[in-house]
Amino acid sequence: MKEGRILYINRNRFSVMICPIDFRYGREEMKSVFSRDKRFDLMLEVEVALAYAHFALGEISEEEYRDIESSKDRVSIERADEIEKEIKHDVMAMIKAFSEVCTVGGGVIHLGATSNDITDTATALQFKEAIGIIKDDLHALVKALAEKAKDHKETVCAARTHGQIALPTTFGYRLTTFGYEFLRHLERLNDAEDRVCAGKMMGAVGTGASFGERAIEIEEKVMERLKIRSEEAPTQIVIRDRYIELISILANIATSAEKLATEIRNLQRTEIGEVSEPFDVEKQVGSSTMPHKRNPIICENVCGLARIIRSFLIPMHESALLWHERDLTNSSAERFIIPHCFILADDILSKLVYVVRNMSVNVERMRKNLELGGKSMMAESLMMALARKGMSRQKAHEIVRKASMSDFDSIYNNEEVLAYISRDEIDKALDYRSYLGVAVEKTEKFLMKAEQ
Q1: 397 and 362: one domain?
Q2: Active-site residues: which are they?
Q3: Exposed (0-12), middle (13-18) or buried (19+): which is 349, by Cβ within 10 Å?
C-alpha cells in the first residue's frame, strides 16, 4: 500500500458494488430487464428462434431443433463465463456452453449467424419490454396529474413569468400543461416502438450470404417468432439511428420530469409555499442539523437523475459513427447508456407519480400570494377592457403602465379612462376570478383525454 493511502475494510460485510443503481436507484422490474441473467436468456431465445427458422425451412432436422429448444433452460451462465475466460469472446462462449448441453443439435446452433445477429436482436427484445414499463409509468403519471387537476380545476393561483407574478390562472390548468406534455411522450413512444425494436439475422456484413438463397425467409421467420421487426438494410449491426431516437425520447421524458419536479420545488419555497411534496412528519428527517426542515428531496432527486439521462445523448450519437460495416467502439458505451437511461427514467417517473398523488396543495396560500400581486396584477385585463370600448390598445397600455409604476388607484380618477369605462367596470376588470380565460375548459378537455 502506498504511503499515505488509507484502506478501509469492513471484514464482516465486504461489497464490490460501485454504481448507485446497484444499491440506491431504480426499481427491480426495470432492473431485471437489463440484468445479466435476463440478457443471457434472451440471447438463448434468439438462438432458438434461429434454429426454428432453419427447421421450418428444412435446413435442419426436427430432432436437432427440438433438442436445441428443450436444452435452452439447462445452459449455465457460469459455464459460459468459464469458457469466455479462455476464448475471450462472450457470444461464442455462450454458443459453446449451449452446445455442450445439447444431444444432437449442438452442431447447428448459431448456423449462419454473426454475434450481432444475436446481441442486437436480444437488445430489441429488451427495448420492447422496457418501453412497456415506461409507457405504464407515463399512464400512471398522466392519471395522477388528471386526478389532481380535477380537484383543483377552479383553484385560482398566480401564474408567474420571469419569476414574477404575472396573471391569474388555475392550479388545475398548470397541471394540465404538464399532463399534455407527458401524453405527447406516450404518443412518441407508441410511434417509435415498432421502429426502434428492430433485430437482424443477416450475417457478418448484412448481406445474408451465410444463410444462402433463403436468407430473407430465415430472417422473417426469426423476427416473426420474436414478434419484432427486422432492420431493412443492416451492416453487421442494427443501424444506430434507431437507438438514438429511443434514447432521445427518454431524454425528452427526463426533461419534462425535471421541469415538473422543478415547478414543485419552486412552489414549495418558504416564501411561496403553495405546494409541497409528501413528507412523513412522524419519522422523516429533513436535515441532520436543522430539525424544522422539510426539503423537497424527491423532486431534487428527480432533477439530478434527469440530468444523467440527458448526459447520455452525446455518447449515444457518437456510438452511431462506426467505421464501414462496423467497429466495436459502440459496444462498451451502449452497455452503460441503454440500461442506465431506462432504469433511471423508470425511477424518476415512478417517484413523480408518488409525489403528484400525495403532494399537499395550500389553497389559502395561493389566495394570499394572488393578493401580493395587488390590483396591478390585473393591468392586462384593464387594458383589454379599454381596448374593447374603443381606446387605442397602445394608448391603453401606456396609461395602465404608468399607473402600475406609481399609484395604481389613480386609474379610478383618470379622465381618459373614465371617458371609456365606469368605475364599476374598472372593478370588474380588476377581479382576478373573472380573468381566467378558458383555463377551466381546457382542464376539462385534458381530463376527458386522460380518461380515454
Answers
A1: no
A2: 162, 287
A3: buried
How many angstroms separate the CA atoms of 446 and 452, rounded?
Answer: 10
- What element of type H or E holds 171? helix 171-196
Closest CA to 264 of 376, 382, 167, 145: 145
Name the nearest CA neighbour of 230 among 249, 211, 248: 211
Q: Please say whether the beta carbons of 77 and 60 come within 8 A.
A: no
In this prediction, residue 124 carries a pLDDT of 98
Question: Is 7 within the bounds of a domain?
Answer: no
CB 302 within 8 A of CB 348: yes
Note the Cα 303 to chain centre separation in Å: 12
Q: Are residue 53 and residue 190 in the same domain, yes or no? A: no
**Cell triple for residue 36?**
445479466
Q: Which residue type, as a one-letter code, is found at position 100?
A: E
Query: How confident is the model over 361-419, as pLDDT tens digits?
Result: 999 999 999 999 888 999 999 999 999 999 999 999 999 999 999 998 999 999 999 99
Are 275 and 365 within 8 A, CB to CB? no
Residue 255 and residue 381 in one domain: no
Domain assignment present for 382? yes
Residue 422 belongs to domain spanning: 374-438
Tell me what pLDDT residue 373 has. 86
- CATH number of the domain residue 379 falls in: 1.10.40
Beta bridge partners of 170: 156
